[in-house]
Write a structure and sequence with these properties.
Layout: E1 6-11, H1 18-35, E2 43-48
Parallel strand pairs: 1-2
Length: 57
């Protein structure tokens, strides 16, 4: 997202809890470090949110 330096992973709060989202971010970052060559850093964001949307007519 930021010039190819940021990864956003959107997960369902029903399937992933807070601790699992932290572990997922670390696992993704570790996999990137071990398999890719890149200058600088890559930011990994795991987004776990609930959205409630209603419409009024």
């Amino acid at each position: 997202i930021s010039a190819g330096r940021e990864i956003r992973v959107i997960v369902s709060p029903k399937h992933v809890d807070d601790l699992s989202s932290i572990k997922l971010a670390r696992d993704i970052a570790t996999k990137i470090e071990s398999t890719m060559q890149y200058p600088g850093t890559i930011k990994v964001n795991v987004i776990r949110e609930t959205r409630a949307i209603e419409f009024a007519k």
